[in-house]
Design a protein that fits this description.
Shape of chain A: globular
Strand content of chain A: 5-15%
Radius of gyration of chain A: 18 Å
Order of helices and strands of chain A: HHHHEEHH
Number of helices of chain A: 6
Number of domains of chain A: 1
Helix content of chain A: 55-70%
Largest sheet of chain A: 2 strands, antiparallel
Largest interface: A-B, 54 and 55 residues
Strand order of the largest sheet of chain A: 1-2
CATH superfamily of chain A: Winged helix-like DNA-binding domain superfamily/Winged helix DNA-binding domain
Oligomer: homodimer
Number of strands of chain A: 2
Structural class of chain A: mainly alpha
CATH class of chain A: Mainly Alpha
Chain lengths: 146, 146
DNA sequence: CCAATATAGTTTGATGTCGAACTAATGGAG
DNA sequence: CTCCATTAGTTCGACATCAAACTATATTGG
């Protein structure tokens, strides 16, 4: 552990940050809403609705098994619908419901005060400057996945 | 989601990075060793041995329940011992075993090639420069925990 | 056309993580 | 000394996540 210390320390910080932020988000969100579930709903609204589970899994860089699990819970809560894809017998189509849209909005509203709190304590442009660097790292790690 | 976009994007990147890096580490580690378990062993060697579960939980910013779970698995594998603390009837003392030390070394050796690989692709001093910023964020989030 | 390969989605089991609840012990105030 | 607040550790249930294994379907190459 000599010259690997920087990377090790870096990933340790990342791991803890991820955990703490996720926990904070989830405390604020309504009705036991989770970050994983929120990001699916958000994706449906902001990127595209009617995608397949595999496409969603790839978008978030999780396994298909993970996405199946999250989608099942969302469907159970009536926040998405999942139907067979007529164009591909193996596939499904995931669509957000009106309740899903409402839940997404409620979640955003619930976390807004926390973002404001962060913005008073941090230089947002500095945080924004970190994003492309993190994204670079992420793409390297994602490439290492296969 | 107007001026909160930077923070939201930032935490999204952090979450994915944490996941991908953890997965990569765990693929490389021997015998189903996990990052959570490794960090406990590493802490015993590099920081202090003979600490209590609560102290360890605070060090990693996880709940006591989480630490109990991880420690139980480590004990089961013979990598730590856990005994009552004679100075405090509620508390325990966690110590690393020789097998635990060996496992830590094996884990470090197993992940070394991956760190080398990262070092060939990234400017390590740039990564190192990110650490204090991440640590600042982490301390803010940690303070928000209570 | 057919066989081999790849892909989609699901299930299962293991792990980490949290919140809630609990029992037992400690520390501080009156 | 007694009582109350705090702390330590554990259990339980819910969720996300991965790997492995599986069935069904689509795609590709000969």
């Amino acid at each position: 552990m000599t010259n690997s210390d920087a990377f090790f320390s870096f990933f340790t910080e990342i791991g803890i940050l991820a955990q703490l932020s996720q926990t904070q988000f989830e405390r604020l969100m309504p009705d036991g809403m989770t970050v994983a579930q929120f990001t699916v709903l958000n994706h449906c609204v902001r990127v595209a609705d009617g995608r397949s589970p595999a496409t969603l899994a790839r978008a978030f860089q999780v396994t298909k098994a993970t996405m199946t699990s999250t989608l099942q819970r969302l469907e159970q809560k009536g926040l998405v619908t999942i139907h067979p894809d007529p164009a591909d017998g193996r596939s499904k189509i995931v669509r957000i419901t009106e309740a899903g849209r409402a839940m997404r909005e409620a979640s955003i509203a619930a976390t807004r005060p926390w973002f404001e709190h962060l913005r008073r304590r941090l230089d947002e442009s500095e945080v924004a400057a970190l994003i492309p660097r993190l994204a670079t790292l992420r793409s390297i790690l994602d490439a290492d996945r296969d």
